Amino acid sequence: MDNYKNDENTNELTTNEQTAPHWEEESMPETEKKKSILSKLGIVGILLAALKFGKLATLGKFLLAALKASKFAGTIISMALTIVIYAQVYGWFFAIGFVASIFVHEMGHYITSKKIGMNVTAPMFIPFIGAFIGMKEAPRSVKEEALSALGGPLAGAFATLICLTFYYLTKTPYWVGLAYVSAFLNLFNLLPFGPLDGGRITKALSPMIWVIGLVLTIVLIIKLKSFILVLVLIVGIVEVVSMIRNKSETAKYLEVDPGFRLKIGLSYMGLLVILAIFMMYSFDISQEFIKSH
Length: 293
Fold this sequence. Notes:
The protein is mostly helical. Helices cover 82% and strands 2% of the residues. The protein has helices at residues 2-69, 73-90, 92-115, 142-170, 173-189, 197-202, 209-224, 227-245, 247-253, 258-292; strands spanning 124-126, 130-132. The protein has a two-stranded antiparallel ribbon with strand order 1-2. A hairpin with a 3-residue loop joins strand 1 (124-126) and strand 2 (130-132). Helix 3 (92-115) packs antiparallel against helix 4 (142-170) and helix 7 (209-224) packs antiparallel against helix 8. Residues 1-31 are annotated as: Disordered. It is found in: Membrane. It comes from Desulforamulus reducens (strain ATCC BAA-1160 / DSM 100696 / MI-1).
């Protein structure tokens, strides 16, 4: 295609060259004037473009400096990158909503952790893996770990409720679809095993619950063939081995008063029930919409 265009341009040039001498002899002074005017206009245009570009460059530098100064710089950049990547697969609307639901979940962890005095980093996104907040220091007790873990799905349940509310107000299927995804995402994270939120919460209840979580994880790996769950399984097993090897330290770390154990247990079960209801309800509405169309 490019070669054809070049040949076509060459033919046009040859034709112009054959007719040009005649025209130049008759109107050379007028041509020079036109060229002069065009040259001046071109210079002015370049200067204006340079000025405009200079302003944009200054603005860009300012925004970049502000971004670097912000502790959420990594969050914004990784979040934007994740949206762009997901948009290529799922479309922009779903990508933005999906990443926003993950962001709300992670900010639940971040805010809760900060309130209880834990030193954590802002959320970071990894496309097709998820997101996380980094801990600059290990939790001082299983109580801190459980509360930090609880903040994510709690915020996620609220985000799911907001999506369902928008669906009621607009009757747009997008919102109910996003509510289903949000509910599923947070319910998945409550699986009681390993580094998942459920594993960190149930650790404050009883490490024996992890046996149930281990079985569920293996079953889900077989059924879903999920690479992420394989990573969860490996990390979880490593943590179990570490806890067994350091029995005395583990026993001290797991010390929790009965009152807190009851509260965290009820909160955990309540979240499971609420998110399950949200997910099933969203699924039913989605199915009704599909049947009606």
